[in-house]
Design brief:
Blueprint lengths: L3 E4 L2 E4 L4 E7 L9 E6 L6 E6 L5 E3 L7 E6 L4 E6 L8 E6 L1 E2 L2 E2 L7 E6 L1
Parallel strand pairs: 2-12
Antiparallel strand pairs: 1-3, 3-8, 4-5, 4-9, 5-6, 7-8, 9-12, 10-11
Length: 117
Amino acid sequence: QVQLVESGGGLVQAGGSLRIACAASGSIFRGKDMGWYRQAPGKQRELVASITSGGSTNYADSVKGRFTISRNDVNDTTYLQMNNLKPEDTGVYYCNAPINRFVRFTWGQGTQVTVSS
């Protein structure tokens, strides 16, 4: 049973930065795409950033140029560096392994990111 544990969220003022992390049990990241999702209040969970096993990245338009996803497969950890945060970035952030429209693993608890104006 794979466990995904997100950490690093918090309260930050607009324009600030946070770096959140996702750690997994076992050696599972190698060879898999990894992604960060967020669920804003009253909205559906959406994929905001992804990274392939080869290091190719993709971002939702809303975060492009501000967020950077990275990975460390040795440590089974993926990170999301969030700069120039905006109030609309507020939400619960989750990691998972996207596979087309689906995800491979059970969702973790996520980490709350709150951006104040």
